[in-house]
UniProtKB/TrEMBL annotation:
Gene name, Swiss-Prot/TrEMBL: hpnR
Cofactor dependence: [4Fe-4S] cluster
Enzyme Commission designation: 2.1.1.-
Keywords recorded for this protein, A-Z: Iron, Iron-sulfur, Metal-binding, Methyltransferase, S-adenosyl-L-methionine, Transferase
One annotated GO biological process: methylation
Enzyme class name: transferase
Entries under Pfam families matching the protein: B12-binding, Radical_SAM
Native organism: Entomobacter blattae
Domain Radical SAM core: 181-395
InterPro entries: Aldolase_TIM (IPR013785), BchE-like (IPR051198), Cobalamin-bd (IPR006158), Elp3/MiaA/NifB-like_rSAM (IPR006638), HpnR_B12_rSAM (IPR027564), Methyltransferase_Class_B (IPR034466), rSAM (IPR007197), rSAM_sf (IPR058240)
Domain B12-binding: 8-141
Name of the protein described by the UniProt record: Hopanoid C-3 methylase
A cellular-component GO term for this protein: cytosol
GO MF entry, a single one: iron-sulfur cluster binding
Length: 514
């Protein structure tokens, strides 16, 4: 069969700081190609809608699938599916990925028969069976994880091993367009899947049933050897949770003489616990690290149910600095923030050398705060659920809130434009643009003001919206049932590839008990 796998357009943040390959979609495409299907990938983060339509007319795919990792992309996917249905009335159209798994019924309904089914959970575990069932006219909703308007199959299952299916990276045409900051160009890779913690604002753990699985160091190193890009974005939610695994990958990389530069995301307490691992990684090319601090005071951390103390967070930053790793911190701005609160954050951010990123508290389906936050949503427009817009009532008038937010983001952005930074930047630009003709990083420097703009953000709220997300049906601590949040059913300790000490460490640093 001919399968076309499509990633939707970039959201706000990705229009400036980074653009990364759609790894999940590439893995799904890889599984289908291994099964002898003729597969193409089309990435709308780079390409245009009109080129998508030209492609489907010439390629005439039997099946088209869309990557629904981001809630904010759902209206675009529904509209694309509707037009595609008119052009190719007999093709199978399906959507899979993180966010769409949590709102499957709703998206099917809103598509008005344009989307045949939603694939919940891991796509590579079921895509081949799905294509076969479509060919043989077997009812799709009998398959695990598949939801159609006629019903839903059994719970989705996991792939046997993360080592078996490699992403079809070679199917992307413009690989030089993917980058993160100065890692330009950059490829993405997955070392482990899932997260054993259970933060209330996050759905990474509910998607995978609080499991944590690792790929083998050998398979990872082999994959790295095949990647041409010098920069590597490690997509794991929390990198190097398990020290031995991180160390074994580093050893394999050293043994094979692989030379790359890496970016990863982790937690402050994991960094402090596994100092040696991060030290070794700084020696083999770890350049950038993203730590989700979420709040800068104890009250804020308590609100986010993170058991890590502020002292630990600052100690982690200090340690990363000592290794020469550039750290970016994420702070979550709550809609209740006042002008004074924004000012405190700006001052704090100027006092530290790290890059600070700010996002807005956003309840997402699949998170605890979606069901428990008693504040009513002020908008149900999917497109605004991108953590750059306020979807809950703001204490400041909305325009003031955005002015303060963007001013804070500007202060953070400009901080890295001092004389020394400009001099360093000049060196980097020389290397990227003049020596290697790589333009992504250079272009990103001038894009900030055109994308992050308070008037534009207000205007985004005024756009007419055709598809609205339904609010959570239960907003109560008493009736809230955590088990309903999961996409892959939790199967406890055995689903986590962690040694007992690490399992205990995770338990001590997460808030809830199973
Ligand atoms: C890497 C990553 C990114 C990369 C994106 C790379 C890309 N182009 O896709 C970057 C850093 C750019 C990014 C940015 C953002 N991200 Co992000 N990101 C992640 C992260 C950590 C891992 C995703 C990943 O690659 N995993 C590895 C691959 C193998 O897994 P996967 O993509 O989930 O794919 C599997 C399944 O989902 C499924 N699947 C996926 N696609 C498809 C398609 C089909 C057809 C099928 C059948 C199956 C299928 O099968 C795959 C294989 O098993 C997730 C957290 C998570 N654990 O999912 C957050 C996450 C997806 N991001 C999130 C958010 C909020 C954002 C931003 C909005 C944040 C911001 N700062 O503004 C932006 C928006 C980016 C955009 N779309 O323009 C949220 C999503 C929230 C939501 N409900 O919408 C998540 C869940 C994080 C979280 N815990 O809240 N992100
Ligand atoms: S540590 Fe918390 S915020 Fe980070 S991925 Fe895990 S559950 Fe989400």
């Amino acid at each position: 069969m001919k399968l076309l796998a499509v990633h939707p357009s970039a959201l706000m943040y990705t229009r400036v700081f980074l653009r990364l390959e759609p790894l999940g979609l590439e893995i799904v495409a890889g599984a289908a190609r291994n099964d002898a299907h003729d597969v193409k990938i089309f990435d709308l983060q780079i390409e245009k809608h009109k080129d998508y339509f030209t492609l489907i007319r010439s390629f005439q795919p039997d099946a088209i699938c869309f990557g629904g990792n981001y809630l904010a992309n759902i209206p675009e996917i529904i509209d694309l599916a509707r037009t595609t249905r008119r052009i190719l009335p007999h093709s199978l159209i399906f959507v899979g990925g993180h966010s769409v798994s949590f709102v499957a019924d709703e998206v099917l309904r809103q598509s008005n028969n344009a989307i045949d089914c939603i694939v919940k959970g891991e796509g590579e575990a079921i895509v081949c069976e799905l294509l076969e069932a479509f060919e043989k006219k077997i009812p799709l909703h009998t398959l695990p994880g598949i939801v159609t308007k006629d019903g839903e199959g059994p719970a989705p299952h996991f792939v046997k091993s993360l080592d078996d299916i490699r992403p079809a990276r070679d199917l992307l045409q413009n690989r030089h367009k993917y980058f993160i900051g100065t890692l330009d160009p950059a490829a993405s890779i997955e070392f482990a899947r899932g997260c054993p913690w259970d933060c209330m604002f996050c759905s990474a753990w509910t998607f995978y049933g609080r499991s944590y699985r690792t790929a083998s160091p050998k398979a990872i190193a082999e994959e790295l050897e095949h990647i041409e890009e010098p920069g590597i974005f490690i997509v794991d939610d929390v990198a190097f949770v398990h020290a031995e695994h991180g160390m074994a990958i580093a050893n394999e990389i050293k043994k094979r003489g692989i030379k790359k530069e890496y970016y990863l995301e982790t937690r402050g307490d994991v960094l402090l616990r596994n100092k040696e691992v991060f030290k070794v990684w700084s020696e083999i090319g770890l350049r950038y690290m993203f730590i989700g601090m979420e709040a800068v005071d104890a009250e804020g951390l308590k609100q986010f149910r993170k058991r890590i103390s502020l002292d630990q967070n600052f100690e982690a930053l200090e340690y990363a600095r000592s290794l020469g790793i550039m750290v970016a911190i994420n702070i979550i701005a709550d809609p209740s923030w006042t002008k004074e609160r924004f000012e405190t954050i700006r001052q704090w951010c100027l006092e530290i050398p790290e890059i600070v990123n700010i996002s807005v508290t956003t309840p997402y389906p699949g998170t605890e705060i979606w069901h428990k936050d008693k504040r009513h949503l002020t908008t149900r427009d999917y497109r605004l659920f991108d953590i750059q817009h306020a979807v809950l009532p703001t204490t400041l008038p909305l325009d003031e809130f955005y002015k303060e937010l963007v001013k804070t983001q500007q202060v953070m952005n400009m901080k890295h434009m001092g004389w020394q930074a400009v001099a360093d930047m000049f060196g980097i630009l020389w290397d990227k643009v003049v020596r290697h003709n790589q333009w992504n990083f250079a272009k990103s420097i001038w894009k900030f003001n055109s994308v992050f703009n308070p008037q534009q953000q207000i205007a985004d709220h005024m756009r007419p919206s055709r598809y609205l997300i339904s609010p959570p049906d239960e907003l109560s601590d008493k009736t809230f049932n955590k088990n309903k949040l999961y996409i892959h059913a939790p199967s406890g300790r055995k689903s986590r590839t962690l040694d007992d000490k690490t399992e205990k460490f995770v338990d001590a640093t997460r808030m809830a008990t199973e």
